[in-house]
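Sequence of SMC-Scp complex subunit ScpB (Lujinxingia sediminis).
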Amino acid sequence: MTEILDEQTTRARVEALLLAAEEPLSLDRFRDALPAASAEALHKVLRALELEYAGPHRGIHLVRMSGGYQLRTNPDPEIGQAIRKLFETRPVRISRAAMEALAIIAYRQPLTRAEIDEIRGVNSSGVLQTLQEVQLIEVVGRLDDIGKPNLYGTTPRFLDFFGLESIGELPTLEASELQALIEMHNQLEDPEADVEIDHAPDELAPLSDDQE
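Predicted 3D structure, token representation.
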């Protein structure tokens, strides 16, 4: 014999079903899920919840819609604004130094932090951490050398971020343009310093798809 649920237990289970459901629940759905609850008890519980979750002082309302019941947020415009703010996408802010390191990685990948440091002339640990946190670069392997340092490369998000189908779509970067990047960074670090370039390859081109 099936045990009949008391009102308090029925209420707890109805609340759980309402919270878990992604669409309005009809009375038949409640009966299927809670066969031990009587129709009278379900009606009573749902009516009580409608009254409890109502009014401007509640953030959640129980409403009847599409032939069923569903928990909805309070339609107050100020509550709606707060919810939109909660889910709005915050723009990613990248410093010029991080953009410089990102450009070097994009064109020379895979490469180690030491190689990036050599090109930039400064320690790149901080900007590499930042770029990893925003998922624009990642560790793609280890160099077969002493200490087996990490090798860095760009991520699929990098392609999405810059609207590229593949890394092969990067425009060709002339040596003079790389030099300009290095000069720009040196000037940011110390505007009065002389610019010395001791590492400028003839030309840097994006990797082909076969090289990825």
